[in-house]
Structures are given as structure tokens and as C-alpha cells.
Automatic annotation (TrEMBL):
Domain of life: Bacteria
UniProt source species: Allobranchiibius huperziae
UniProt protein name: DUF4440 domain-containing protein
InterPro entries tied to this protein: NTF2-like_dom_sf (IPR032710)
Length: 151
């Protein structure tokens, strides 16, 4: 992880924890609802989440983003699923920050095992209650779009 020179190390630690909670929320199995609720608490109520993935961008508000994921992660159609950050870089300036992450995912959907990788960007703002996610966007690898191999 990296940050802008002169940044309080506590800020970076807090953002690292938020990112960990964010990725942990996308895990099937017990406590899905609790993990999603914990993630929701780290998002501004007005946060914007955008999925691209080679399609027309889908723009979600917080509840519009969480509800279908809760259904997918609890319905039994998607099992043994998890997402995790592979690498991340954080830049902080005053009361704003950005995290650029590469991530991987794996699971079994309707009996078919799968894996994938992609990139996410999370924007943060400092609030009286600490750092919160104000926006997120992601894109996944696909034909013609690959992450550079991790060094």
C-alpha cells in the first residue's frame, strides 16, 4: 500500500481496514447478511457504485447494490464464493483518498466452478465518524482486457 507523503499512518490503516471489510462482504456462507451490513455502514448513504465489465455501465445506489448481492450470496445458486484484494495502492490528500485495487474471485455458480480477476477503484472522504466510501467502480478481465501479471 502507498500513500501521499506526510499522511497520518492511522488514516492508511483505517482505509486498509475498510477495504478488507468491503472485500470480505462478498463471501458466501454464514454471516453474509452481517458482513453486508458491516460494509453498508462504511459507505456514505449517498455513495455511488458503478459496474462496467464491458457492458453499458450499471449505476447503483447503496441499497440497489447490496440487495441483489445479498440475494445471490444467500440463495444457494452461488456457493464457495469469495473476492479478495490481490494488490492495492492508496493515495490520500487531506480529507479525500483513493484506493486502486486488483482483485480475484472464485466460486461455484449453479454447479459450475469459476474464477476471475479485475480492478476496483474506491473513493473515500473523511467524515466526523471516520473515513467512508463515497464511490466505487469496477471492471473485470475479459477477452482483450487483461491485468498485467502481478510482479
Amino acid at each position: 500500500m502507498s500513500s501521499t507523503a506526510g499522511t497520518d499512518p492511522g488514516d492508511l490503516e483505517e482505509i486498509d481496514e475498510i477495504v478488507r471489510v468491503y472485500f470480505d462482504a462478498f463471501t458466501s456462507g454464514p454471516d453474509v447478511v452481517a458482513r453486508l451490513a458491516r460494509m453498508r455502514a462504511l459507505l456514505l448513504p449517498e455513495a455511488v457504485i458503478v459496474r462496467t465489465c464491458g457492458m453499458t455501465p450499471a449505476v447503483y445506489d447503496v441499497e440497489g447494490f447490496i440487495a441483489p448481492r445479498r440475494e445471490l450470496l444467500t440463495s444457494g445458486a452461488l456457493v464457495d464464493f469469495r473476492e479478495w484484494e490481490v494488490s492495492g495502492r492508496t493515495e490520500i490528500f487531506g480529507d479525500i483518498a483513493q484506493r486502486w485495487s486488483t482483485y480475484a474471485k472464485a466460486g461455484v455458480q449453479e454447479g459450475v466452478p469459476f474464477t476471475g480477476r479485475g480492478a476496483k477503484t474506491l473513493q473515500f472522504v473523511r467524515t466526523p465518524d471516520g473515513w467512508r466510501i463515497s464511490a466505487a467502480a469496477w471492471d473485470d478481465e475479459r477477452d482483450g482486457l487483461r491485468l498485467d501479471e502481478e510482479k
